[in-house]
Design a protein that fits this description.
The complex is a heterodimer of chains A (434) and B (173). By secondary structure, chain A is of the alpha/beta class. Chain A folds into 3 domains: 3-49 and 173-284, 2-Layer Sandwich (Aconitase, domain 3); 52-130 and 154-166, Aconitase, domain 3, CATH 3.30.499.10; 288-428, 2-Layer Sandwich (Aconitase, domain 3). Helices cover 31% and strands 18% of the residues of chain A. Chain A has 14 helices and 18 strands. Chain A has a 7-stranded mixed β-sheet with strand order 13-12-18-17-14-15-16, sandwiched between helices. A 5-stranded parallel β-sheet of chain A has the order 4-3-2-5-6, with helices on one face. A 4-stranded parallel β-sheet of chain A has the order 10-9-8-11, with helices on one face. In chain A, helix 8 (225-235) links the parallel strand 9 and strand 10 (242-245). In chain A, helix 3 (61-70) crosses helix 6 (158-167). The longest helix of chain A is centred in the first third of the chain and has 17 residues, at 95-111. Chain A is globular, with a radius of gyration of 21 Å. Chain B is of the alpha/beta class and 173 residues long. Chain B has 2 domains: 3-142, Aconitase, domain 4; 143-173, no CATH class. A 7-stranded mixed β-sheet of chain B has the order 4-3-2-1-5-6-7, with helices on one face. In chain B, strand 3, helix 5 (91-99) and strand 4 form a beta-alpha-beta unit. The longest helix of chain B has 9 residues, at 91-99. Chain B is globular, with a radius of gyration of 15 Å. Classes of the chains: A alpha/beta (434), B alpha/beta (173). At the A-B interface, strand 1, helix 3, helix 4, helix 6 and strand 7 of A face helix 5, helix 7 and helix 8 of B.
């Protein structure tokens, strides 16, 4: 155990019921005196911490490499802790992308660090590396996703990540905490995506800015790692710095099945001061949708006028391209046809998800219904190919965000919804959760 | 660095990085000047032809939300934008601004305080903004000293190249 960690453990930070998850982990991992005298990093303090794992994708990666070299970087801090991940435009849709990818491959080869092509970065690292208590910083906003297994994970830009690749360290402000408790049982047709959209409707797109979002409560145990990853992913759309679910038996089965150890379990103190706290009762939760323009425009699908025509349905991304999402889609599509005026485009978010979906017959169900399945990765959300939309189109999108132009044309409308609602809309040709 | 004077370009709440630098341009180049040709084109296609060096962007709540692409604030510096003023700035965008030497100013300004194309002065010593048309002054909350140090150095890269270190930053907070 590192010296610092044992020192702080003797202070009892891990057992201190008055500290949040983020305060505990950043206390354990703080490399400098936080100035409070007792070694505790409280919300609002600044810390310097080592980073356990860092990765870049093909949008920010090439800029990260450029800055790393401009900084005089010769070797990354630890090649085993660095991943170059090609997912935004893979297989490449242009010569420009191919050249950028070549640069990433060359860098990985000269540094001896990991490279992966095809799977979305967040899903790939969840499948292979991420354990409870890890501190992860990556050059993508949705890095918050990894809190689904109890890691502290946050996104930063290219300069920050270039400096991390150089030193293995970064500075962080200890975030305040917003605690969202889940109670009750899911109604039919309702899933983690609907929970997240409901929370987005309550907090808005900046309600958790600079904060840590903890998902907790009696209903969390019934949500799989896939579902939890949707929750922690979408906390970013509320402005969160990180988001976390406390590890439990579901987490341990996930880790065991992948040969990953249980890491360091950090439980958020029940008496800790939080900035805000509220409960979402699943018994009352209906299928949700966010109206075009912002993920915060969330309301029940049933509040909308019926019959809004939909030209295209996209399902996938780091938010909704997991196996559980695709299973929900296949259940809806089984024996049905996609409406003739609507395109259905599905993007599994990793090679592993793609392969499992193939074995389970999900891919053929989608194809037989008239939908199409693209290569895995980020899908159209990355803005390169795989179904970008044109002027006047109306999309239902099982993905993270619907800011103007997110999927292509500025003159298009994007409704965010769950994979199940998206699939039902593809069959109906109109926005519907029925 | 103490005072800057510039014209203001006004935008609303939730301006995302998809608006500041639309996806199709995000990896088109890493040269700020090239990226700058497409700055704000997701919300204001004429922006790059009407902006002048030294101008300020004024946003509402949650400016720069969405993706972490550093190319978005880089595009703004590429057309000479010096300061981002907003009621709130999204977390990663805020860090990115500091890291490339673009000044972020968070201030809860009154409605109609700024006008399109109007001149304002931002004074970092007194943490005030003065509307040079109306003469009205408002205060803003200064950023922590160590972030001022970074942004004044021209960003993280310049700070590190100048011999600065992370520990010196945080211990100087």
């Amino acid at each position: 155990m590192p010296e610092r960690e044992s020192q702080v453990q003797s202070h009892g930070a891990l057992e201190d019921n008055s500290l949040t998850f983020s305060e505990k982990i950043l206390t354990l991992r703080n490399e400098v005196d936080s100035g409070t005298g007792n070694g505790i990093a409280y919300a609002g303090d600044f810390v310097i911490t080592k980073v356990d794992f860092s990765y870049v994708h093909d949008v920010q990666g090439p800029l990260v490499i450029k800055i790393f070299k401009e900084l005089g970087g010769k070797n990354v801090f630890d090649p085993a802790k660095v991943l170059l991940n090609i997912d935004h435009d893979f297989p490449s849709s242009s010569e420009r992308s191919s050249q950028l990818h070549s640069g990433m491959r060359a860098f990985a080869s000269e540094q001896g660090c990991r490279i992966q092509e095809g799977s979305n970065c967040h899903q790939y690292v969840l499948e292979n590396f991420i354990r409870p208590g890890m501190l992860v910083v990556a050059a993508d906003s949705h890095t918050t996703t990894l809190g689904s297994v109890g890691a502290f994970a946050t996104g930063m830009g290219s300069s920050d990540v270039a400096s991390i690749l150089l030193s293995g360290m970064t500075w962080l402000r200890v975030p305040e905490t917003i605690r969202i408790s889940l109670a009750g049982k899911f109604n039919k047709g309702v899933s983690a995506k609907d929970v997240a959209l409901k929370a987005l409707g309550i907090l808005g797109t900046d309600g958790a800015n600079y904060c840590s979002v903890e998902w907790t409560g009696p209903a969390i145990s019934a949500i799989s790692i896939d579902g939890r990853s949707t929750l922690t992913n979408l906390a970013l759309e509320m402005g969160a710095k990180n988001s976390v679910v406390e590890p439990d038996n579901t987490t341990f089965s996930h880790l065991d099945s992948r040969g990953l150890d249980h890491g360091l379990i950090i439980r958020s103190g029940k008496e800790a001061q939080v900035k805000k706290e509220f409960t979402i009762n699943l018994d009352e939760l209906l299928p949700m949708v966010s109206l075009p323009g912002s993920p915060g425009n969330a309301r029940p699908v049933s509040d909308l006028q019926s019959g809004i025509p939909v030209t295209v349905v996209l399902i996938g991304t780091c938010t909704n391209g997991r196996l559980e999402d695709l299973r929900a889609v296949a259940r809806v599509l089984k024996g049905k046809k996609v409406s003739s005026g609507t395109r259905l485009i599905v993007t599994p978010n990793s090679r592993e998800v793609y392969s499992s979906a193939l074995k389970e017959g999900i891919i053929s169900t989608i194809i037989d219904s008239g939908g199409i399945v693209t290569a895995p990765g980020c899908g159209a959300c990355a803005g390169y190919s795989k179904g970008l939309i044109g002027d006047g189109e109306v999309a239902v999108f099982a993905g993270p965000r619907n800011f103007p132009g997110r999927l292509g044309s500025l003159k298009s409308e994007i409704y965010l919804a769950s994979p199940e609602t998206a699939a039902r809309s593809a069959v109906a040709g109109t926005l519907t959760a029925e | 660095m103490t005072k800057f004077t510039g014209k203001t370009w006004l935008y609303g709440d939730d301006v995302s990085t998809d608006s500041i630098l639309p996806s199709k341009w995000k990896t088109s180049s890493f040269d700020p000047y090239e990226l700058g040709k497409h700055a704000m084109s997701g919300i204001d296609p004429e922006f790059s032809s009407k902006v002048s060096a030294g101008d300020f962007i004024v946003g509402g709540l949650n400016f720069g939300c969405g993706s972490s692409r550093e190319q978005a604030p880089l595009a703004l510096t590429g057309c000479g934008v010096k300061i981002i003023i907003a009621k709130s700035i999204a977390r990663i965008f805020f860090r990115n601004c500091i890291n490339i030497g673009l000044y972020p100013v968070e201030v809860d300004y009154p409605d109609n305080y700024f006008s399109q194309g109007g001149e304002v002065e931002v004074d970092f010593d007194s943490s005030t903004i003065t509307n040079l048309v109306s003469g009205e002054k408002i205060d803003f909350r200064p950023i922590p000293e160590f972030l001022s140090k970074l942004v004044n150095a021209g960003g993280l890269k310049q700070f590190l190249l100048g011999g600065g270190t992370l520990s010196e930053l945080v211990s100087a907070k």
